Structures are given as C-alpha cells and as structure tokens.
Amino acid sequence: MSTPNKYSSDSQQRVLQVLDLLFGHEINGLAPGEIAKSINTSASSITRDLANLVEAGMAEEIMQTGRYRIAPRLASRVLATLNTFSSASQKLEELRLRYMRPL
Questions:
Q1: From the DSSP assignment, how many helices (H) and strands (E) are in the chain?
Q2: Would you place residue 4 in the very low, low, confident or very high pLDDT band (cuts 50, 70, 90)?
Q3: How far apart are CA 51 and CA 45, in angstroms?
Q4: Which of 3, 14, 22, 29 has the most CB atoms lying inside 10 A of its own CB?
Q5: Confidence tier at 101 by pLDDT (50, 70, 90)
Q6: Please, what is the Cα angle at 51 between 49 and 52, to 5 degrees?
C-alpha cells in the first residue's frame, strides 16, 4: 500500500484490503476470523467491514458456512472491464492493419 496522505482513512483502507483478499476465494469464501488474521485487525472491525461490503453488493455471505466471497455483481463489473479492454484491443488492431496497407 502507498504512503498515507491527509485524505487517507484507515477504515476505508481496511475495507479495500478485505475486498482485495476475497478475490481468489469465490468458491469457498473466507471466514471473518481468517480475514481478520490475514490483515492483522480485530474481528469486530471485519464484521463491520463485511456488513458494509454486503450492503454495497460487493460481497456476499455463503449462508451454509458463514464465510464470505465477492458478490456476482462485482465479478460482472470485472468482466465488463475485461470486455472493454478486449474491444479496445480489437479496434487498435483494426486501425494498425489499416495503416499497414500499401498505398
């Protein structure tokens, strides 16, 4: 993480760490205690952070296990970003080929 500045918020930075940690655990999720240990913070802070991520639609609780993972809504946003890159790449390739045609 970068050096904090006057606009940095420890709690917001922690929520972002939690979100980042959830990536790669989409199948089984992570338990709140595992998350707290991984980012060296209290269980109560993680409970609050997870509640906010769930409310924002960025994480979801796996009801059968009580573990958490990124929400499908967030995953779809990531896929939309990748599609944007793919489309831009295709357009650049088309333009490159146009410029390479002999006159």
A1: 4, 2
A2: low
A3: 10
A4: 22
A5: confident
A6: 65
Nearest to 14 by CA among 49, 65, 42: 49
Using only C-alpha atoms, what is the Rg of the chain? 19
| pLDDT confidence of residue 66 | 96
Which neighbouring-strand residues pair with 62?
A: 67
d(CA 50, CA 34) in angstroms, rounded, equals 13
3-state secondary structure of 60: strand
Query: By CB neighbour count within 10 A (0-12 exposed, 13-18 middle, 19+ buried), where does 96 fall?
Result: exposed
Angle between helices 10-22 and 43-55 (to 10 degrees): 70
* Whether pLDDT at 8 is above 90: no
Q: CB-based contacts of 32: which residues, under 8 Å, 6+ apart? A: 43, 46, 47, 50, 66, 68
pLDDT grade for 40, boundaries at 50, 70 and 90? very high
